[in-house]
Design goal:
single chain, 290 residues, alpha+beta, Heat Shock Protein 90, five-stranded mixed β-sheet, two-stranded antiparallel sheet, 7 strands
Length: 290
Amino acid sequence: MAYRIRFRKMILKQKKLDTLVNNKTKELNNMVNKLEQTIRELSLSEDLLYKSNQQKDKLTMILTHDLKSPLRFMAKISDFIFKNMGRVPEEKIKSSSLDLKNSSQTILAFMEEFTTWYQTQKENYRIKPQWLNLKELYSEMHDFYADILKMNNNKLLIELDKDLLIVSDKELLKIILRNLIDNANKNSNDGQIIISAIQNENFIFLTVKDTGNGMNEDQIKNLLRSNSDQRSSLEIQEQLGFVIINDFLLKLGGKIESITSEISKGTKIIIRLPATLFVSKDVVNTGQLD
């Protein structure tokens, strides 16, 4: 009888011990899991910090590169006007003043585009879709570049037979067009830049064609690399315009459809956009249509 009592006590004691061991094991497992989670979070934070610092380096290089030339040009023109006011023909002063105006306008447009692009890199950025008349939008581009194109003696022509409507983000689309036209103007002299558009079923195809310097196959392949994270800082500072174009097209559900070019004869770039902006995993659409 006494043996049975002792045996039962041993069984109960063993069960209590097992329970204690199991509880301690669970506690240790929870501690290990929390520690592993903390390590993952620290690694993620370190990775985000590294990427953030990389992004800052790229942004600094972009700003330095893209602002240096126009600011140097503005300083040179301002100095010329200051030193020669009343000493050279008035027409020359007017021409230099126009150059100064165009350069300052270019810097302002660049800063606005850069700010918009920087905002779109944030996770909570929201696009603002609305009905747009492409003929009216193209007319805005024509007016904006009226004086700027004179510096290279280029002409901007619009080929659009009818009013085409598109639902998209006006500011992002304007920046895409401005960068395409600006790139064509920089690489053309005494030439033409033609902007056109056609609709094919559910898509709008916008075309910017120039009679400029043209590009080789390697340059075209480099421009078609859509992800700015895959580019070096040097590539981004040299090709910010196309980085912006690719990033914004992605947010608008579009893409560069094709680039055709021939050295010394010009370049033709076609972009494809949905006629009506849709919601996808890459596009957060909370705007109200006008």
